UniProtKB/TrEMBL annotation, chain A:
This is Tetronasin ABC transporter ATP-binding protein. One of its GO terms (cellular component) is plasma membrane. It comes from the Bacteria. PANTHER family: ABC TRANSPORTER ATP-BINDING PROTEIN, ABC TRANSPORTER ATP-BINDING PROTEIN NATA. It comes from Dactylosporangium siamense. GO terms for molecular function: ATP binding; ATP hydrolysis activity. It is found in: Cell membrane. The lineage of its organism: Bacteria, Bacillati, Actinomycetota, Actinomycetes, Micromonosporales.
From TrEMBL, chain B:
Keywords: Membrane, Transmembrane, Transmembrane helix. It comes from Dactylosporangium siamense. The keyword Transmembrane applies. The chain crosses the membrane at residues 20-44, 80-100, 120-146, 158-180, 192-216, 236-254, 295-314, 343-365, 394-418, 430-454, 461-483, 503-526. The keyword Membrane applies. This is Exporter of polyketide antibiotics. Signal peptide: none annotated.
């Protein structure tokens, strides 16, 4: 088994609206996969289909070599899920919910449970209604992370966590990856994605618009260059991949597609570089480009 | 008075939020005595006719329990004030629920915090809920009074009656405001508030039914309101008592509210166990935790108290009927004293069954609550199949009412047997009367399950609507002279009148099969559809 999750051409409609419109997603075994997209892009719907809670209207879905709709119960014993908004039973304590969910998944590791309670600094004795948003999220995370499962499906799991807990979460996920678990992490926090994810899929309006390693994605972005040359440059404008070119005597400012960086730098050095400032591509830039809604057609 | 700053704005917010619900119940209650008065006026024209009617109704302790002591004057207004007394209990119930809805529910949802951070005084939230409830109650009171005056009853009596209705809403609104301060959860606040109303009702009822215990009526706030006796003395001074009590309870609510933190209750939240007991490892174990409170409540409320009351009153009511000469002939036809007691028992067990059907529906609707709160999603994402999850709740929707009816029948049978001196004979007969009701109860719970599985968003509306239809058909269907085909819509119509009547097995079997088919359809739908539907 190579891929833990393979989704191709997934379609899901709710009445008139099309939530998923040919979505593709491949998560290899043992990787941490970032799942990004603006609100309403279809991330939660995708995860619910992977859980067999909703049925796809089209496309193929394979999860841990099974069919999520038909084999739901046996697959659920091998995965753990944390929703973006964990809701608890008001009259059950956090510790009770952790134990219950763990047992229903087929058992949880008590030592790991206690370690996580300590690291996330959670009082398991409080009743469900008494927890704040962040603490409810911790209950869901601990229940999932203390279970001995192959795959973690996390839907914006850190919403409401403070930066300190966010850091604990990153350490724990890094450890899980070290143990060979596969993680699908839906998130909006780019630093989290950069720190944790091997590969990333960006979806928008129910379709996958970008997928690959972070390095590959960086290649899709542009580098900003500002240089002072010995002689006024020429021929820059005709080079492929150059954008927003400004030339004032010996001063040059431009943006270049990462794939064309080498060619442009050769051209610049041929004019004698006196000083050079270059800003690496930021993921933010890439994400923002994809998050912005398309103008009405 | 900065503590009350913002009360007006919050009251307007309440009116805005309840702009549909508020007029509906106000109009419903305002029209109730009017329609009763116009109907009664055409049927009973003279004082003598009305006195006969009052004596007929008053011969049943069960009716005295609801209506209070018989009016001392048989004029139309006094008869209507007496007959529509249940409307005042409904006003009181709405008062409790309305004030909790706009105080504790808001606080639990965190919306009070949002408003509390604006320019709003400490007392404003409680005050706004009370002011709105008082305003709505007074409008209902004025409408009731105007409606009664339109039936040519004296103005003084009409206004005493309207004020009594308004007072029920206002006084119990204030009591609701106190119970809203006690617990963190709105559910517990409602429970305490309704229990307080139940105690008030029980004290008043016991005082009105039992000779020698009439002082009990004066212990109960509901008793004061009944004792206004509009059109039959117009005891205006009682309003003085009610006003003083309302003021005292309101001050208590405001004091309690000012003493505690926003979001907290006066009863401190208890910490739970740090880890789950080994038994909490299945959906059924979780369902037990979620359902046990209401199961206990129904067992105690209806099973024990109701059973003892039904059983204990059965013989008294038969004896009272026997003293009534006009009814003796009818009594002979239905089998003498024990026959009358049987009719009473079959009737009250039928009433109890309607209440238990409400329990079955609410237990079935628990699945919908869990789904809408996204809690079922968390469970269904573990190794729990949909059927196993649903079954854990269905156990309570079907076995819960069964156990409650069983205990009701046993308690009523034991008590009735004790009064007649033949426990061995009465227990199986009365228990049978309770158990024959079960198929009808199951049909209503099963209908709710079917709707939940097939079109979940409509489940609460259709479940409760079905129960309302059964109540209307069962309680006033015959009086409205509805056709038998229409009456047959209610499953309760097909339940044999036991004890006393013959047990017909076929309708019971048919109802049980209908219930099974509905559950199967619901589960089949639930397995196919998306979860959660929000």
């Amino acid at each position: 088994m190579e891929n833990s999750i393979s989704v191709a051409g997934l379609v899901k409609r709710f009445g008139q609206t099309t939530a998923l419109d040919g979505l593709d997603l491949t998560v290899a075994q043992g990787e941490v996969h970032g799942f990004l997209g603006p609100n309403g892009a279809g991330k939660t719907t995708t995860i619910r289909i992977l859980l067999g809670l909703q049925r796809a209207d089209g496309g193929t879905v394979r999860l841990l070599d099974g069919d999520p709709w038909h084999d739901a119960v046996s697959l659920h014993r091998r995965l753990a899920y944390v929703p973006g908004d964990v809701t608890l039973w008001p009259n059950l304590s956090g510790g009770e919910v952790i134990d219950l969910l763990g047992r229903l998944r087929g058992g949880l590791n008590p030592a790991r449970r206690n370690e996580l309670l300590e690291r996330f600094d959670l009082d398991p004795r409080k009743k469900g209604r008494a927890y704040s948003k962040g603490n409810r999220q911790k209950v869901g995370l601990i229940a999932a992370l203390a279970s001995d499962v192959e795959l973690l499906l996390l839907d914006e799991p850190t919403s409401g966590l403070d930066p300190l807990m966010e850091e604990v979460f990153r350490q724990v996920i890094a450890e899980e990856k070290g143990r060979g678990r596969t993680v699908l992490l839906s998130s909006h926090i780019l630093s989290e994605v950069e720190a944790l994810c091997d590969r990333v899929s960006i979806i928008r309006q129910g379709r996958t618009v970008e997928t690959g390693t972070l390095t590959q994605l960086r290649h899709l972005t542009r580098t900003f260059i500002s240089a002072e040359l010995s002689t006024p440059p020429n021929g820059l404008a005709s080079l492929p991949g150059v954008h927003d070119l400004h030339v004032e005597a010996n001063q040059v400012r431009l943006q270049v597609d990462s794939a064309q960086l080498d060619t442009v730098l050769r051209q610049l050095t041929s004019h004698g570089v006196r000083s050079l400032v270059s800003q690496p591509p930021t993921l933010e830039e890439l994400f923002l480009r994809h998050y912005e809604t398309e103008p009405a057609k | 008075m900065t503590a009350f700053t913002g009360t007006g704005s919050l009251a307007r917010l309440i009116v805005r939020r309840d702009r549909v619900l508020l007029p509906i119940w106000m109009l419903f209650l305002a029209v109730l005595p009017l329609s009763l008065a116009s109907g009664t006026a055409t049927l009973y024209k003279t004082d003598a006719e009305r006195q006969g009617y009052i004596d007929d109704l008053g011969s049943s302790p069960l009716l005295l329990l609801f209506y209070g002591t018989k009016p001392t004057d048989p004029n139309l207004g006094a008869l209507i004030f007496w007959r529509s007394a249940t409307g005042m209990v409904i006003m009181a119930l709405i008062g409790v629920l309305f004030v909790i809805r706009h105080t504790r529910v808001e606080e639990e949802a965190g919306r009070r915090e949002l408003l509390g951070a604006t320019v709003v005084g400490r007392h404003a939230a409680v005050a706004a809920a009370l002011v709105t409830m008082a305003g709505a109650s007074l409008i209902v009171g004025v409408l009731v009074a105007l409606g009664m005056m339109s039936q040519d009853t004296p103005a003084a009596g009409a206004f005493a009656m309207g004020l009594a209705w308004a007072a029920a809403g206002i006084l119990f609104g204030a009591i609701g405001a106190v119970t809203a301060q006690l617990s963190e959860g709105a559910g517990a606040a409602r429970g305490i508030g309704i229990a307080a109303l139940g105690v008030a009702f029980g004290l008043r009822g016991a005082g009105d039914v039992t000779t020698g215990l009439s002082w009990l009526t004066w212990v109960s706030p509901l008793g004061w309101i009944y004792n206004v006796h509009a059109y039959a003395g117009d005891h205006w001074w009682v309003f003085g008592v009610i006003a003083v009590a309302t003021a005292a309870v309101t001050v208590l609510a405001l004091r309690l509210s000012a003493r505690r933190d926003v979001g907290a209750g006066l009863l401190p939240p208890r910490l739970g166990p740090a880890s789950a007991a080994p038994s909490l490892s299945s959906p059924l174990a979780l369902a037990w935790r979620l359902h046990r409170g209401s199961l206990y409540g129904w067992l105690v409320g209806l099973g024990v108290v109701g059973g003892l009351l039904f059983g204990g009153v059965a013989k008294t009511s038969a004896d009272l009927l026997a003293d009534n000469e006009e009814l003796t002939q009818i009594m002979q036809r239905i089998g003498g004293r024990s026959g009358a007691a049987d009719v009473f028992l079959a009737g009250t067990l039928g009433l109890g069954a309607i209440a238990v059907a409400a329990y079955g529906i609410s237990a079935a609707l628990r699945m919908r609550t869990e789904e809408a709160a996204l809690r079922s999603e968390a469970l269904l994402a573990t190794g729990v199949s949909r059927l196993r999850w649903a079954a854990s709740h269905l156990v309570f929707a079907f076995l819960g009412p069964t156990v409650v009816m069983l205990v009701t029948g046993l308690a009523a049978g034991l008590f009735y047997g004790a009064t007649t001196g033949d426990i061995g004979r009465e227990v199986p007969r009365v228990l049978g009367g309770a158990l024959v009701q079960l198929p009808a109860i199951w049909v209503l719970a099963a209908l709710t399950v079917a709707v939940f599985g097939l079109t979940p968003r409509r489940a609460p509306a259709i479940g409760w609507a079905a129960l309302s239809v059964c109540v209307v058909l069962g309680q006033i269907g015959a009086a409205l002279q509805l056709s038998q085909a229409l009456l047959d819509v209610s499953p309760f119509t097909h339940i044999p009148r036991v004890p006393g009547g013959p047990v017909t097995v076929v309708p019971l079997l048919v109802l049980t099969v209908i219930a099974i088919v509905l559950v199967v359809a619901g589960l089949a739908g639930f397995r196919r559809r998306s979860v959660p539907v929000t």
